[in-house]
Protein: Leucine-rich repeat protein
Amino acid sequence: MLMHLDREDLNQLWRIVKESLSIRSAANEKEMELWVELKRL
Structure:
């Protein structure tokens, strides 16, 4: 499969992967903040 991808395709794929990872890490941070708040109650 990778044989048929050119450099631009790979760059676009990498941008999508990085974006999804940054969104996921931001969501994880928010989740941790919520856990901290719940533990304080």
Remarks:
- The helical segments are 7-40.
- The radius of gyration is 17 Å.
- The mean pLDDT is 89.
